[in-house]
Design a protein that fits this description.
heterodimer, A: 380 residues, alpha+beta, 2 domains, 8-stranded antiparallel beta sheet, B: 56 residues, mainly alpha, 80% helix, transmembrane (chain A), PepSY domain-containing protein (chain A)
Chain lengths: 380, 56
């Protein structure tokens, strides 16, 4: 590498890191607790979903559950029914004002799928984990905040890559993992930064990148809805109407029949962003940790109950869904959560030591000294 | 491969295998995941412990 390109990489590493460092520390502290959000919620008694059922018991028809939810708020309309692979006894039903296509202004009702018992979901901001999650995701600044955090995530990714590039030349004459605590603050922090940074680089890169992808999820999902979903819907817009409207259970049966062996992920009602004005979308997923993140869609005519077309979701939706586990670390039991937390702490140490290395840069002190002297000189 | 890169590359490969394996299955895949990801952290801890000021 030429001295000029090394200087450029060091500049990139310094500034991408510095710009995202404050946000990164917030992400580390909140993320450290959010890794254990189930455990924290359980401890604080805020996670009281009763999704119990006896094996072999049949769940209630969706129509019954939707009607139960609807009774809680008759002014709203059911728009969306969601299924959770981790909570087989739960149904999440979204109600929103007539005409609303998006997920604003409505409410979620959570029901036990076997008893129809309603579960009270606290407003996210009323719980500790909800508060931390909001801080983590958008700094309490809504969509703009979420985009900001996403950009910080991308800067962090660039910082890890550029850090790797400048690591090589720096370590040319040094043994791996050398920690010179006896020397000055800058050297001690540099050594710690280099060891911790390079050892956890792959984890930091993956968590940073998946975090950025998740931050941009509204844009990614919006793009899908406006391109592939829109053209899928447009292909059936002119079909003649039958005049009747079929029930959601029949729609679910028709949709799942098109994908043997797959599980329901969600059903969007006509008029929702994920469906058309006259079609339901029945979205299914696989069973395994990997395939439950790969979705397929069946567009079901609300009047005939027939599947008019099926589609796979594009690669970027799969990438978005796969980013979840690789960001949350929730796919390998408690030991993985603990490892995730330890990596988060190490990343925090890398952030702080990197900042100290920058603070203690030799040139800046000389410059500061000269400026101070210069000011005194002018005054005198 | 030069000495500078042998350890970082080894740790990166182990991290990568660790991250990927638990998504592929349960049981043995989880153990591979935990073991793979534990190594980089253990290396950090060992280096820190061995060179802590006041030791040796």
């Amino acid at each position: 590498m030429t001295p000029a390109s090394l200087r450029a990489w060091r500049w990139v590493h310094r500034w991408t890191s510095l710009v995202c460092s404050v946000n990164l520390l917030i992400l580390c502290v909140t993320g450290l607790i959010l890794v254990f959000h189930h455990e924290v919620e359980h401890l604080m008694g805020t996670e009281e979903l009763d999704t119990s059922f006896t094996e072999g018991q049949a769940p209630l028809p969706l129509e019954t559950l939707v009607a139960t939810a609807h009774r809680q708020d008759p002014a709203l309309e059911p728009k969306f029914v969601s299924f959770d692979p981790e909570e087989r006894g739960a149904r999440y039903i979204y109600l929103s004002p007539p005409g609303a296509r998006d997920f604003e202004g409505g409410r979620w009702v959570v029901l036990n799928a076997y008893t129809g018992a309603s579960q009270i979901l606290k407003q996210p901001t009323e719980t500790l984990t909800g508060f931390l999650l909001k801080l983590h995701v958008d700094l309490f600044a809504g969509f703009a905040g979420q985009m900001f955090v996403g950009v910080m995530g991308l800067l962090f990714v660039v910082s890890t890559v550029s850090g790797l590039v400048v690591y090589g030349p720096f370590m040319k004459k040094l043994a791996f993992g050398i920690l010179r605590f006896g020397r000055n603050t800058r050297i001690a922090n540099t050594d710690l930064h280099n060891l911790f940074g390079v050892a956890t680089l792959v984890w930091a890169f993956v968590v940073g990148l998946t975090g950025a992808i998740l931050s941009f999820s509204p844009l990614i999902v919006g793009y899908w809805q406006n391109t592939e979903m829109a053209s899928l819907i447009a292909r059936h817009a002119a079909e003649p109407r039958a005049g009747t409207v079929v029930g959601v259970d029949e729609v679910a049966r028709a949709g799942t029949a098109a994908f043997p062996g797959m599980d329901l992920a969600f059903i969007a009602y006509p008029g929702n962003d994920y469906a058309s004005d006259r079609h339901y979308s029945v979205v299914v997923r696989g069973h395994t940790e990997l395939t439950q993140r790969i979705l397929s869609v069946a567009l079901v005519d609300a009047e005939s109950g027939k599947v008019v077309e099926t589609a796979e979701t594009p690669w970027y939706i799969t990438a978005l869904l796969l980013s979840g586990p690789f960001h949350f670390g929730d796919y390998g039991g408690l030991p993985l959560q603990i490892l995730w937390a330890l990596f988060t702490i190490v990343t925090g140490v890398v952030t702080v030591t990197g900042f100290v290395v920058w603070l203690k840069r030799p040139r800046a002190r000389a410059v500061a000294g000269m400026t101070a002297r210069g000011t005194q000189g002018t005054r005198a | 491969m030069s000495g500078v890169w042998s350890m970082p590359v080894a740790l990166a490969v182990l991290s990568f295998i660790g991250l990927a394996s638990a998504i592929l299955g349960d049981g043995i895949w989880h153990w591979v995941c935990w073991a793979g990801l534990a190594v980089p952290l253990a290396v950090c801890a060992l280096k820190l412990w061995a060179q802590w000021p006041g030791r040796a």
